[in-house]
Design goal:
single chain; 4-stranded antiparallel sheet; 8-stranded mixed sheet; alpha/beta; Alkaline Phosphatase, subunit A
Length: 461
């Protein structure tokens, strides 16, 4: 009897170990307005030791592209595995369920399959203002999550030691500040603390946790110690080359933003860059707290960790301080994936899209998505980083109800076509900063790549 019991116990232990490995936890760490490394904003400029630590444990995707470079449409696309052309969400004015009331989101799939599903901070766009029920709807509490929490700075965290609005108030969001208080007087510190507490609480339960950090998104506020990491005037601001090709007014530099930025001197650009770097390092410190929780609970061999930005960001290129363009700096965003059996410290050059994330985690965890996604599983390149899963990535922007632009990125080229017949082509082999529009020189490339847009369709209005 004892021998039979011992054999049975050993068998059940092996089954449980296999189940943990085959059906792991998912930790989705999403960061707001974090641009990818490259160009003027390089790894040597911003200090992110904890992101570097995660990169050493996972695979860094060097060419990962969003489907719409604005918060809400990008997140809705990522969470459904559908392009913005399919969701019909092309701004921050519509929450997901208004357009797709019955869609099964990524966390919802796991929630319905038995995982504990919890969100802390900004995973979906945080609309709803001060109305609790509206906020719950924007966060998709109930359908996607067992619980979802948002956070705000404490009274002391709202007080600034130094800072100003660099537009003189013309753009209210264009504010930077070195704040009083500790990390936990800011939302990102509270998000990290709540995420860590939930990881500790859930123990061996299977879970899908969303950790949505708010920084470096505006307003560009962080505890003062992070500003001290970047002394004033220590950073070199970007300067556009005199030979940079001009583009039409709706591509970049449009509206009140463009009017305000046109008045900037190196002083304003430098202050914003310093604040952006401070916010990034502040976020990175909170990332470290979450990674420490995985260490403490021995969860790396049974957890998929996805670190992702919701889109890229210009930090002065083409006199633009924002996202919402079809240039590389706006369309490309950070992506690192660590998972059981993944060999860390590698980089992958395959083109990937954020619609690929949903089918990837579903594939690894053996779950079937109930709708057809636009993305592909990245599992092949998690096994062999030299493989390629696709040869193109697509990004959309709209400018009001009539004008839109679609961009395709291939291994060498970026082609952007606007519905008003404007065309841009950039050769990344020769021109990674997209300085020169060479569409007129390569009509055959424009024609070849233009044909691929037919498979994507046009935005839903």
């Amino acid at each position: 009897m004892t021998q039979r019991f011992t054999v049975l116990a050993a068998f059940l232990f092996l089954v449980s170990q296999s189940t943990a490995a085959d059906r792991p936890n998912v930790l989705l760490i999403m960061v707001d307005d974090l641009r990818d490394y490259g160009g003027a904003f390089t790894k040597s400029v911003v200090k992110t030791p904890n992101l570097d630590r995660l990169r050493a444990l996972g695979i860094t995707f060097e060419r990962a592209y969003v489907q719409y470079p604005v918060c809400n449409p990008s997140r809705c696309s990522m969470m459904t595995g559908l392009r913005a052309e399919q969701t019909g969400i092309v701004g921050n004015d519509k929450q997901l369920r208004e357009k797709l009331p019955n869609i099964v989101t990524m966390p919802q799939l796991f929630k319905e399959a038995g995982w504990q599903s919890h969100a802390f901070g900004k995973l979906f766009h945080l609309g709803g203002g001060n109305n609790p029920e509206a906020k719950r709807a924007w966060m998709d509490t109930g359908q996607s999550w067992h619980s979802a929490m948002s956070f705000e700075a404490t009274p002391i965290g709202k007080k600034m030691i130094e800072g100003r609005n660099v537009t003189g108030g013309a753009l209210k969001w264009c504010q930077w500040g070195a704040a009083y208080g500790t990390d936990d007087d800011q939302p990102d510190g509270q998000i990290a603390a709540a995420t860590v507490a939930k990881i500790n609480e859930l123990g061996n339960s299977r879970w899908f946790i969303g950790c949505g950090f708010m920084k470096p998104h505006d307003p560009f506020i962080a505890p003062k110690k992070y500003f001290d990491m970047y002394p004033p005037n220590s950073l070199k601001v970007w300067s556009d080359p005199a030979t940079m090709s001009s583009v039409h007014k709706d591509a970049v530099g449009f509206g009140d933003y463009g009017k305000a930025f046109a008045k900037f001197t190196d002083k304003e650009w430098g202050e914003l860059l310093r604040a952006y770097c401070a916010g990034t390092s502040f976020m990175d410190a909170q990332l470290g707290r979450v990674l420490d929780a995985l260490d403490k609970n021995n969860l790396w061999d049974k957890t998929i960790v996805i670190f992702v930005g919701d889109h890229g960001y210009h930090t002065g290129e083409r006199d633009w301080w924002n996202k919402n363009t079809l240039f590389e700096r706006s369309c490309r965003a950070p992506l690192v994936i660590a998972a059981p059996d993944v060999v860390g410290g590698q980089s992958c050059r395959s083109l990937v899209e954020f619609v690929d994330l949903y089918p990837t985690v579903a594939d690894i965890c053996g779950l079937k998505i109930p709708h057809q996604t636009a993305g592909l599983s990245l599992r092949p390149v998690l096994k062999s980083t030299n493989d390629h899963v696709k040869d193109s990535a697509f990004t959309l922007v709209t400018r009001g109800p009539k004008l839109y632009g679609q961009s395709i990125r291939t291994d060498r080229w970026r082609l952007t076509k606007w519905s008003n017949a404007q065309t841009e082509l950039y050769d990344h082999e020769q021109d990674p900063e997209e300085i020169h529009n060479v569409a007129a020189k390569h009509p055959e490339i424009v024609k070849e790549l233009s044909a691929r847009f037919r498979a994507i369709g046009v935005p839903l209005q």
